[in-house]
């Protein structure tokens, strides 16, 4: 669903005037990848006492199909949160930053809808900086900054990605060129670490483990109930997000005993909502060499790295937010 730029811009400006204390956020997601994006989007939308979610853009990573499939899943979640037509959704890039970059001065390039929307929102006059929350690859964000560098002072990027200080990680590996561009940009940049199964440097968002039993016990029936059901990506009909959450956890491969899935992306939403739920470290920006990190201690450009997440506090707030969103 694409909302015309000019028509939406006026509505967004009005919304900003009505809620000056809330945090402006724009989520960029590979929504159909696994199960954590859906829960992060719902968590942000239902945290409407804290966030103004100005829109959701999608991108393609290696799982979950192309941007059309990513968009379908984002639409499902937004509908199940009863925010459809209230929160704009835009398709972004299938490809990677370095391949798309030569074409960004053209009117139509891979990801142009999302990129133009990001730029549009960043240019809205506000005393509040727009927080860009990419919870997938960084392609759409890097393209927006490259297409219109004038937005850099108006935004902060809080990215869910990397196993820093170790190499690799899914979101990072899906567009290394975009990560390198952000590291060399003057944009305010924060990195929410994943550290998947890292026992040497634990504390990334991998520790935010939602156990299947708790999802099955607490989520069904939660959220606004729709009069018209939504077909899930695995089939079935759903009228609230809580029931869809159970379906996602039923169909996804689980880890461990008792079985769980990590809600990595929820961690990125959580540290914007309450920075006390993790540790932030200001450090010189390293270089990304291959898929690993090279420290640059004399680099005057800084970034924030988030780790040591309080998984219990984050999950309790997640479930509490879901419970406040609608009755069973």
UniProtKB/TrEMBL annotation:
| Gene Ontology CC | cytosol
What Pfam families does the record tag this protein with?
A: IU_nuc_hydro (PF01156)
**GO biological process terms on file:** purine nucleoside catabolic process
Inosine/uridine-preferring nucleoside hydrolase domain residues are 25-278
Record has Hydrolase as a keyword: yes
Keyword terms of this UniProt record: Glycosidase, Hydrolase
The molecular function terms in GO held by this entry are: purine nucleosidase activity
- Source organism superkingdom: Bacteria
Provide the protein name. Nucleoside hydrolase
- Species the sequence originates in: Tichowtungia aerotolerans
